[in-house]
Amino acid sequence: MSSSFAVFTVCGANAGIRWVKTPSVSNICKRAEAPERICDYDNLVYACCRCNSVKMDARCVLNPCEQAYGQHLKILPDGAIQGLTAQGRELIEISQLARPRITQARQRLLNLFRVLQESQDPRAAALLQHYFSFPSNLPMLSQSRPPHGNSRPDGIVQSGHERERRGELPAVH
Predict the structure, then answer these.
(1) Of 164, 3, 8, 34, which Cα lies nearest the Cα of 95?
(2) What is the number of domains present in the chain?
(3) What is the mean pLDDT of the chain?
(4) Residue 150 falls within a domain, yes or no?
């Protein structure tokens, strides 16, 4: 599983923040494109349900396990998203990341993050930790049993849950 716990957090509307009710596990490359990779941990990432369903049948554009999204996408201070490469622009189109509602949600999150980060109030630090820390409601992959076995059993030690347990994750992301 990708160490970046949510591949489609760029939407900003409901992914990558603790109030996500039900994150889903998404295949980077879809079954039709790579049926042998359906349970391959290197092909699985967490995504918000909306982003996962929007890109459901899209071909594999960018694999965040291989290429950092920051090389292809830029989030502007007003919440707009800019494609820096052809692949980034294609991801924006496929995932519908330029919709006005999504752009406004990203702007609100960026503003909230800045205000909380700049504040000296301990309550702001607690809110920053609560809303922008590693989500506690992600599935425990160490307890999952894929149909064809675990293709990377040694990868469990690199999972978000294990890294959090060892205190290796940053307080906020």
Answers:
(1) 8
(2) 1
(3) 76
(4) no
Q: What does the CA dihedral 154, 160, 165, 168 come to, rounded to 10 degrees?
A: 100
The model's pTM: 0.66
Which ranges constitute the DSSP H helices of the chain? 49-54, 86-95, 100-118, 122-132, 160-165
Backbone angles phi, psi at 65, to 5 degrees: -75, -20
- The C-alpha atoms of residue 87 and residue 22 are separated, in whole angstroms, by 28
What domain range is 52 assigned to?
Answer: 9-135
Checking if the pLDDT of 84 tops 50, the result is yes
pLDDT of 133 over the 70 cut: yes
Position 24 in a domain: yes
Task: Evaluate if residue 13 carries a pLDDT over 90.
Answer: no
Give the number of other CB atoms < 10 A from CB of residue 34: 14
Specify burial of residue 36 (Cβ count, 10 A radius: 0-12, 13-18, 19+): exposed
